[in-house]
């Protein structure tokens, strides 16, 4: 395919740090919009990649940055909000998506790739409801859209295995809410590849792709497996829902919100799919067993070197 001019919102985040180099290898020119370009100056050293300061919630500024682009990619998302009434999720997921659609129309950008989530629009959580609302806005737009619904995403520095590994290194006992919630973790490199292939193939327009890995695992088993990978003997204590709800209420008051009431509501639904989007795009899903142990071992070696 011919090289494209692509604007990425949320490109300095976890998925963006893998997607930008992948698209750059295809010869595309990429503009990454960030509130603080200094956070990921390394991305800007790649050929044909610019990281620019921009407030994506400023509609006029967003439309200016989209001028001349062939495609926009929206990776912006949050797992927790300031407050607990859902307004933070609506601002980031719904209102920003609506503004982006309007800016694309104004700037004559024909193509939009939208990050969403498995089970979007289902259940009681503000997170999933807002993801579903955002999808509806995209699907009702005049743009040539593609939507991606990943399960939890793993890779170097992820917020799943790496976060639990840090907790397990400190705590001999880990109380765990919703320990029986199921996930099908998907590799971040596979997610990036899905976006790249969607840009290259017009048949992906108007399609929703569920992205998930080959292994379905309960949260409690995932944490126990992580403990084994970092060579820690730990007791994972599944909590009944009443205590899990209390843990979530307390957790959202702690720095970084390790768990919130909305996370707890999201975990009522298993993050597993029914239509293999990776296979539909010709991608063989990467098992977590092939990647995570090596990444955690590398993190352990690096920590040991720093201490030494």
TrEMBL record:
The chain crosses the membrane at residues 277-297. Residues 10-153 form the NAD(P)-binding domain. InterPro entries: ComplexI_NDUFA9_subunit, NAD(P)-bd_dom, NAD(P)-bd_dom_sf. The keyword Mitochondrion does not apply. Keywords: Membrane, Transmembrane, Transmembrane helix. It holds the Pfam family NAD_binding_10. This is Complex I NDUFA9 subunit family protein. The lineage of its organism: Bacteria, Pseudomonadati, Pseudomonadota, Gammaproteobacteria, Lysobacterales.
């Amino acid at each position: 395919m011919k090289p494209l001019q692509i604007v990425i919102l949320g490109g300095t985040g976890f998925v963006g740090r893998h997607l930008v180099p992948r698209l750059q290898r295809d010869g595309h020119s990429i503009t990454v919009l960030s509130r603080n370009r200094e956070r990921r100056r390394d991305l800007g050293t790649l050929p044909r990649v610019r990281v620019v300061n921009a407030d994506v919630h400023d509609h006029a500024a967003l439309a200016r940055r989209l001028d001349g682009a062939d495609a926009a990619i929206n990776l912006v998302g949050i797992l927790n909000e300031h407050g607990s009434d859902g307004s933070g999720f609506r601002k980031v997921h719904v209102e920003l998506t609506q503004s982006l659609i309007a800016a694309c129309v104004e700037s004559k950008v024909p193509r939009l790739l939208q990050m969403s989530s498995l089970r979007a629009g289902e259940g009681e959580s503000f997170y999933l409801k807002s993801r579903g609302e955002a999808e509806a806005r995209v699907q009702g737009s005049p743009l040539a859209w593609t939507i991606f619904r990943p399960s939890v995403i793993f890779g170097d520095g992820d917020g799943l295995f790496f976060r639990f590994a840090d907790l397990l290194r400190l705590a001999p006992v880990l109380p765990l809410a919703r320990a029986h919630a199921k996930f099908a973790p998907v590799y971040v490199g596979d997610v990036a590849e899905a976006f790249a292939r969607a840009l290259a193939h017009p048949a992906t327009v108007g399609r929703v792709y569920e992205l998930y890995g080959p292994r379905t695992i309960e949260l409690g088993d995932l944490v126990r497996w992580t403990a084994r990978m970092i060579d820690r003997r730990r007791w994972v204590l599944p909590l009944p829902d009443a205590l899990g709800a209390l843990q979530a209420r307390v957790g959202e008051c702690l720095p970084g919100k390790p768990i919130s009431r909305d996370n707890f509501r999201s975990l009522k639904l298993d993050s597993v799919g029914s239509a293999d989007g990776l296979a539909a795009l010709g991608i063989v899903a990467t098992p977590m067993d092939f990647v995570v142990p090596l990444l955690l071992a590398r993190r352990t070696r690096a920590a040991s070197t720093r201490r030494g």
